[in-house]
Amino acid sequence: MPADFLIAHNPEEGTSLPYLVRIPLGERGIVLKVRELWPRTSKVYCHRAEWPEDADIIQQVPTRSCSKRGAAIDLVLDRGRENRSQFVLTMARGREMIFWQTARVAKQARPKVRTPTAKASGIAELEILVDVHERYAWKFTHQQAGTRKQALPAGDYAVQLDDRVIASVERKSLVDLVTTITRGRMSYLLADLANLPRAAVVVEDRYSQVFALQHVRPAVVADQLGECQARFPSVPIIFAETRQLAQEWTYRFLAAAVHELGLDSPTDDRLNELAGAEPAPQLPPKPAVVRAWALENGHQVSARGRLAPELVEAYLQAHR
Q1: Alpha helix (H) residue ranges in the chain
Q2: How far apart (Å, rounded) are the C-alpha atoms in residues 57 and 169?
Q3: DSSP 3-state of 217
Q4: String of b and e for 110-131 (b: at least 16 CB within 10 Å)?
Q5: DSSP state, 241?
Q6: Cα separation of 192 and 125, whole Å?
Q7: Which mean pLDDT values do the consecutive 10-residue runs of the chain (320 residues) have?
Q8: Which domains can be identified in the chain, with CATH numbers?
Q9: pTM
């Protein structure tokens, strides 16, 4: 029996399940195709697969225990974090369904609500632009909205008027939100969103989960969220509990933005006025970005230390 839990790249092309996992259970182990490397925010759908002879292994983790209990396989890995999970095998409509989950995901509150199927008020049809870099994008099929892939100036989902983006929503899981905050990227993200007439950030989790974080001080994240809202009041950060509710809120918000800004068929001047009513603060460029630009353009720059003011000014002039 294989002693380690293995994760590898799925060699299949064009698949929505880009990874393979091998569970050390039985003589040859159980091999599954999966969507993510770990079920951090929601259950991960799995599908049975074959382990390739020349597998491109990403992670190889020793296993403390692996046992089958009824319809579930309990897996405990020999590492400090992200070490306990469970694979649940069930049947639905005559075929096998497998989900990978953690205790936190399994116990996550599920609000007993049904989202409405009616279209947004005042909008006959809504086309939502999805950023080309968005992985596993929302489909908005329940909301009866169409989607189209396009590079967006800010956010992950947006709408247009007269071929101009007027509203955008940045989608975040709680893990992604915390990473963005702790790495100092949140202010830059909000500054880009604040340049649009309407924008928001929606989080697929509850605000209370901020205070359940284990590897980051909850007070640090809460303080940063407060500072971000005080600095960028035109870009609300919404905690929508679940992926489903976050998608529903995004649809209603984008539809309302189209309805409001399209009432008087605003001109470019009006849109500029809406976007610039409270200009976003000008943030200094990151030193690493300036250094990379300087090297690409033949400027002399040190590997570390304070950047020369004239070099920063040259970078700003080149990007205006």
Answers
A1: 103-107, 174-182, 186-194, 218-231, 243-262, 268-275, 287-296, 309-318
A2: 35
A3: coil
A4: eeeeeeeeeebeebeebebbbb
A5: S
A6: 27
A7: 85 91 92 92 88 93 92 92 91 82 72 72 83 88 88 94 92 90 91 94 91 84 94 95 90 92 59 52 70 83 80 80
A8: 5-107 (no CATH), 126-272 (3.40.50.10130), 287-318 (no CATH)
A9: 0.55
